[in-house]
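Reopening this ticket.

The earlier resolution said the output was attached, but the attachment link was broken on my side. Pasting everything inline this time so it's all in one place.
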Amino acid sequence: MSPIRAPLLLGIPVKANIYKLSVASQTCQRVMSVERIFDEFGHFKRFQACLYFAAVFQAIACGIHYLASVFLVERPNFVCAPPGNITDVLYGNHTGASLEEVLPFFKPANGPMVVRTAVGQQWELSTCQRAQRMNPTDFTYEQVVNRTTEKCDENYHYVYDHSEVYQSIVTDWDLVCDREWLAKLCQPTFMMGVLVGALVFGDIADRVGRRRILMITSLCQFVFGVSVAFTGNYYLFMVIRFLLAMVSSGYLVVVFVYVTEFTGNKVRTWTSMHVHAAFAAGIMMVAITGYLVRTWWIYQIILSTCTSPFLFFCWKFPETPFYLMAKGRLQETQVLLDSIACFNGLEPGRLRAEDLLEPKEALLEKEVAMGRAQPAEPERKLSILDLFGTWRMAWRTVTVWAVWFIGSLGYYVFSLGSINLGGNQYINLFLAGAVEFPSYLIGCYAMDRVGRKRTCAPALLLAGTACVLIIVVPNDNEVLVIILSMTGKFAIAIAFGLIYLYTCELYPTIIRSLAVGSGSMMCRVGSIVAPFCVYLADIWQYLPQLIVGILAFIIGVLTLLLPETLGEPLTSTMEEAEALGRKNSPDQGTKDPEEGVEMN
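Inline output:
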């Protein structure tokens, strides 16, 4: 996520004493009585519902593009091709007249294939090398000592098994053996684009408006998504995918802000959390399309066009009233307010844009405009170092960053690694997306009933426990492994979904946006590391789950030391934020949840 404006995310009136006046543009940044809009027009009536579901529909495309590489870079069975035409093939108990007949049964760890060519040569074929038998007498599978070995490189061809994967970028551009690392860079490079997109579009949206960014990024998602299918080489493919990552991230960043600025605080927890559910629907679409289409460029086109209907009506989206008011565009705000009233079956004109200004601020602006007052001096710019101003806040920041990191790392390890669990990889990925729906429902309910900390910490502990249990499960019990993996994904999705709101509540107004923004950067770091963690499955199948499990368990324990924020008012100063969780009583000591000690 981007550094979202916390008051807009939470739907709480901004309380501040200083507002800047831009002399160049003569526009003022206004403070709005935010909740009055929703008290008058409803927190989630017809107008907001239509906008919400339309905007969230395109978020499905973000989930699609984030996980599409799972099947784009799928590597089927392959061997180094021999010279000449093949007449006979031996592999264990399997025989055939062509490599294609035997390749579905090939496992590199069990030994090479033995083939005989039309000119009588015999070759032992492995994935990245081939060996010619010298002066063979019989055509048998037993390996012989007298042979010459050649390493396969870019000058050689490979033969691929097309029974499961007809065409992927791996088979098109021979991204195997010495070039395998190029295929493994596909997802990390995409996540780098996600990081850049979050930084770029999050800032631009505050300058030019949410509506324009939604339109531009959704259009670019379609254009870049389809363009990926027509790239003729690997390097152009990576460049277009990087741009696609930027605009996908930009849309996801801005749509969170957009939907929260159109929904009231009574439903905002649910509406913001369930944007993630649209992302999960995109993962399920990837699984279904990957199962039905085994040619990568057709697969890419289908995925890129499935949300294209959004392009026909996104240009009708209005700008948010908060952005219009912040830019001083009162007339446009009034038109929007009247439209909301009509669409919701209410009388137009019942709320004026001028009424959304705080009385003192409206008076100040009028005085400044008439030249009878001077604009207030801007506040000191805060830096990331202010998150570490005291030992108490430093410890809190480190813990919160760790939750952001493990939330993202675990989310993508469970998603990307689901195809390595055994069984049907398409069903596994589909389940990895489907399991998020109940996680967000339960997470929303729990965080408003038992608290943020008491939901986040148990979720991380459950994810850690599930990951560790995978290790002790027998290798042949694939069903139990999949159940435990989905349990881990379910739990990590809860923690990942609520950390946005929890971070906002743990920090004061003066530094809240910085806290969310820095946490978002840790989230992106986790998403970049996740593909490399998944690749560790080449060393041991369950090593990625073990790493995530240990980290999730440790960070879950640390989360128990954070203060609970349920029912607590938002803090405005660093002193108030530091006091969260402290309960003073004349007869009892003060229990410090972050330090876990009794202080008298």
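Reporter confirms the inline version is readable. Residues 1-32, 584-600 have pLDDT under 50 and may be disordered. Residues 201 and 250 are 5 Å apart (CA to CA).
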